[in-house]
Each structure stands twice: as C-alpha cells, then as structure tokens.
Amino acid sequence: MHNRRAVVVGAGVAGLASAIVLSKLGWRVALLERRERLRGDNLGMILWASGVRALRALGLDATLDAGGTPVDRFEIRSEERLAGSFSAAVLGADDGSPSVMVHNAVLYEALVSHLGRDVEVYPATQVSRIDLVDLAAGDATRRWDADLVVAADGIDSPTREVIAKGAPTVDAGVVAFRATIPAHRAPERDSDAVEIYGPDRRRFGYGDLGQAGACWWATVPGGMRPESPQIQHELINRWFADWPAPVGKFIAATRPSELTQQPIRYVWPLPSRLHYAEGNHGVVLMGDAAHGVAPILAQGASLALEDAVTLGWALRRSPESIPEALHAYERARAARIRRVARVARRVHTVASGGPGVARGILRAIPDSWLSNRISSLSDWQPPR
Ligand SMILES: Cc1cc2nc3c(=O)[nH]c(=O)nc-3n(C[C@H](O)[C@H](O)[C@H](O)COP(=O)(O)OP(=O)(O)OC[C@H]3O[C@@H](n4cnc5c(N)ncnc54)[C@H](O)[C@@H]3O)c2cc1C
C-alpha cells in the first residue's frame, strides 16, 4: 500500500506516534496541529512498562536510554504509613522494559525527531471540519484529502461524538498542580516515585527525572484556581503544610512560575466504536480522543503509544483494505482500553470519596492485591 494519504489531526503523543507509524509504512502524512510550535511541556510523567514497550516498537529506544529514569521502586503511602511498595518486576520490568519517569519535553522531542520525511507538518492549523463523504480534514481556509484520517486531537475531540454518540467528557471534580524542579534545587528523594494519599481527597506524588531534576504532582478537590501563581503556591503550601517530608521541601523548592494547573477529566462511558469506514477509506480515534482515561493511574500516554503501534500492526496485516485494518485495530484495542479505563475510574472514585476513604481502603487492602492490579495494567505487549 504505497502513496496512501493520511491526515493526522493533533500533534500530541498519539498524533506524533501515529504519524511515525504511518510514514514507516510508506504513507504520505499531513500532520495538522493548532498550536504554533510542536513542543512538549516542562513536566515529568510516568511511562509504564507497556508504554516503554510501545516506544521501543516505534524505534525510540535511545530516548529511554538517554532521557528516562527507570522506576526501580514505586511506593503508595497514606500520610502515616507505607501502603504498598512495588519493585521493578511488579512494574513490568521482567522482560527488560522497566517503567520510567520521563520529562514530557524529552519524550516529545524524540517523537518529533522520528517523524519521517513523508510527514508534512502544518502548525497553527485548527481543524474545524472532517468530511466523511469525500474523506478530508480542513481548517477555515484549506482542505487535506485523505484515505485515512487519524483523530488524535485530545479529550475534547469532536470526532468522537461523530463516530460514536454518548461518550462525553466528565469533570472529575479535582484539579492537578504539577511542577518540575531543576536538579540543583530538587530535594532529596527516598524512592524513585512516590504517591501519598491524604485526607480531604488530596494526593501528592513525586518522582526522579535524573539529569532533568525531579517532578511533583498534587491533586486537590475543586475546580481550576483563578488566583495568581504566587497565591496558588501559597495555597498549595497551606493545603500540604503538615504532610510528611519531603512534601514541604518540594513545594518550597518550586517557583510559582514553574506551577502548572490542569483540570482532571475523563471520557465516560467509553465510545462504543473507535472507527468509521466507508468504501476504502476511514477515520480512527487515537489517544485521549478515543479514551481519555482518568489520569490517576498515569496510563494516558502509554495507551496513546500502544494505540499507534496497534494501528501500524493492523495496517500491515491488511495492507489492501483500510476498513479491515481499522476493524482489526478496534478489536485489538477495545478490551485493553475498557479494562484500564474501568480501573482508573474506580481508583479515582475511591480516591475522591469522603475524607479518609482512600486512607481506610489503603489500610484494608493487601499489598499483593495492589501489586497484581499494577502489574496487570502494564502487561500489554505489541501485537504480532
Ligand atoms: C494532571 C495529569 C497528569 C498526567 N500524568 C500522566 C503520566 O504521568 N503518564 C501518562 O502516561 N499520562 C499522564 N497523563 C495523561 C496524558 O497526558 C494524556 O493521556 C496524553 O497526553 C494524551 O495524548 P494525546 O496525544 O491523545 O492528546 P493531547 O496530548 O491532548 O494532544 C492533542 C493534540 O491535538 C491538538 N488539537 C486539538 N484540537 C485540534 C484541532 N481542532 N486542530 C488541530 N489540532 C488540535 C492539541 O493542540 C494537542 O497538541 C496525565 C494527564 C493529566 C491531566
């Protein structure tokens, strides 16, 4: 299948990975992104072993060797005690793919640098219509014809509603603050990655980014805060004032200008379909556009990378028929996506329960149960 044309809408992790996969298969790709520049954020993230396997399948091994910090131990705590401590093996490293903490901008740059020569990038292009009859995507002034449109335009993708009605975005009622601290200011860490569940539906986590320093994330109930970064910093200081070390040190080491705030949202219920096909062309949903899971399990980027690798597998398997390939993609992804989304929503619901609910449950459930859950979420392998 040569010289097929794909239009990828959105240059996030899902869109970039899809463009890489399609160009490797010989497609001509137009990558349309509304932002003016393709660049990642100054934020740390966890890439579970499944996402690491997907990155390797895309040929991005070097990114992980240079920019990822293997998570040898991940701890879940309540403020007063350790509730679970997970080794690299539990986190999926038994096949040599340890979960990693990675700086978002490093991951992003690696993806951008692997875009093939046949990928034409159109920044500052806000797609406003997708024509399903004569397949094409366009902004206010231009139109790109395609055999395949990849809708990788994030959790608010309007295409999800076109392909499968009734998969809305739900506001989770919490907001996340995150920051990355350069190495020279980062406080001492006692583990590679830690998440602490406190009272009043608050959580605080931190992780090691190697040379890029360290990162932390905190979720609190409520909506986006309208105050200045300076006031937000003071509020965070107050909300986590009596939490165990090194929480206060992370907050103190952060400059207000380094704070990022995001609302927590997820797609629920999931769309009943992930693609639309007509004749020999089609549209497919990828990444958050398809499944936007509650980020409490930090699975979103891994799922997006897995989606792209699976799309490549499906197109290789059915090179002559786009509908067949999209059908195979959907079959291969549906169960995995449902499982992760269900667990993420359940964990989110528990963590957002009344004061002390998360702490009570952490106290009650055995370590082995948590270990099984965590390792089963990282068990994805690229399809063959
Ligand atoms: C607080 C928080 C913490 C998280 N932590 C982690 C973590 O540790 N690990 C992890 O794996 N995941 C994490 N995630 C989830 C992860 O960030 C997302 O799942 C992932 O970025 C999804 O990638 P995507 O490419 O599907 O969507 P996006 O990253 O949203 O990319 C969509 C792209 O499409 C563009 N776009 C949108 N509309 C249009 C349009 N009309 N025309 C053109 N372009 C358009 C956007 O500008 C954007 O570039 C976290 C999420 C949150 C909110």
What does the model show?
The radius of gyration is 21 Å and the shape is globular. It has a domain at 5-69 and 100-168 and 267-350: FAD/NAD(P)-binding domain (3-Layer(bba) Sandwich), CATH 3.50.50. The chain is 33% helix and 26% strand. It has 384 residues and is of the alpha/beta class. The strands form 4 sheets. A 7-stranded mixed beta sheet has the order 6-5-14-15-16-13-17. A 6-stranded mixed beta sheet has the order 8-2-1-12-19-18. Strands 3-7-4 form a 3-stranded antiparallel beta sheet. The longest helix is centred in the last third of the chain and has 30 residues, at 322-351. The chain has helices spanning 13-24, 49-57, 61-67, 104-113, 158-163, 229-239, 247-252, 300-317, 322-351, 357-364, 367-377, and strands at residues 5-9, 28-32, 44-47, 68-70, 73-78, 82-87, 100-103, 119-122, 129-131, 136-138, 143-145, 148-151, 169-181, 193-197, 203-208, 214-221, 260-267, 275-278, 281-285. Flavin-adenine dinucleotide is lined by residues 9-15, 32-35, 45-47, 125-127, 152-154, 176, 178, 262, 264, 287-289, 295, 298-302, 304. Residues 9-15, 32-35, 45-47, 125-127, 152-154, 176, 178, 262, 264, 287-289, 295, 298-302, 304 line the site of flavin-adenine dinucleotide.
